[in-house]
Amino acid sequence: MFSPQRRLALAACLSGTLLAPLGVAAQEWPNKPIRLIINIAPGSSPDVLGRAVATPLSQALGVPVVVENRSGAGGMVGADVVAKAPGDGYTLLMSAGSTMVVVPTLTPKMPYDPNKDLVPVAATARLELFLVVRANSPFNTFADLQKFARANPGKLSYGSPGNGSTPHIGAEMLKNMAGIFAVHIPYRGSAPALQDLLAGNLDFFMDPGIAAPHIRSGALRLLAVGSTKRSFLYPDTPTLAELGLKGYDGGSTHSFYAPAGTPPAVVERLNREINRILVTPSVTQFIRTLGAEPTPMTTAQLAALNAADMRRYADIIKQQGIRGE
């Protein structure tokens, strides 16, 4: 028989032996490349934001961060890949805000549960919408577009990054609030939609920020800003709310997520590193070229923001009778 002192010593030894692998594993993360799934097509605002963070994140962690675009179904294709991945800290998702706060309302049966299978890691930026047309468009103002659309229902078309994306819902909000009808053409990302606008195949686009170079060059004309306040990039351009669409707000937050079960210490490290990266001068300046500001926040703050946005969009979708296509 062991003495009480001997039993305590043996228990402590066994406890240390059992806990050691967990502690060592946490200390060793990361020790191999991290896979970053971006759930929208290359050139889209989530894509350029994700890539802007990926390089400095790789440098901070000391391992490669390998970017892979998996677009489709409003971002659900890429999100599903991450939701079903091991929660070991080696798979991350960079998601469009709409995938988390709009798509669940429009999709009765999802292949994953966004609230249970994915955990918030870090926000990047709050993306607003910008109503743009080609420079040779006959519409010089939002009033011009609205007047024509009312007189010619169905003659105008607009593109979006896909069904259920924020630009899609933003344009449907505009249609309902302005009393117009235009044909929706979904794409696999905002970049191809923008290219078709420039090519003359679309009449207008609710840009999530990637059209800024074309606005500056004069290839596109900015008619209005789809946010609650004027953009610092375009202080002379009115908001849609100022132009008669009271309460219009098409903003959403693109963010990083991880599979459920990812160790809290890993999530906290990622949150800390990404928040630090967002406020570095080069990344801050890049985000501002999209007409946005960096939004470093805790994981709890991101979860609360998503919940509030989901409620807001769900109310809008119900009130306006918007349906997934």
Protein described:
With 325 residues, the chain is of the alpha/beta class. It folds into two domains: 164 residues, Bordetella uptake gene, domain 1 (D-Maltodextrin-Binding Protein, domain 2, 3-Layer(aba) Sandwich), CATH 3.40.190; 96 residues, D-Maltodextrin-Binding Protein, domain 2. Helices cover 44% and strands 17% of the residues. β6, α7 and β7 form a beta-alpha-beta unit.
What are the SSEs and their pairings?
Blueprint: H1 4-28, E1 34-38, H2 45-61, E2 65-69, H3 76-83, E3 91-95, H4 97-101, H5 103-106, E4 118-127, E5 130-134, H6 142-151, E6 157-160, H7 166-178, E7 183-186, H8 190-198, E8 204-207, H9 212-217, E9 220-225, E10 252-259, H10 264-278, H11 281-288, H12 299-320
Parallel strand pairs: 1-2, 1-3, 6-7, 6-8
Antiparallel strand pairs: 3-10, 4-10, 5-8, 5-9
Helix pairs in contact: 2-10
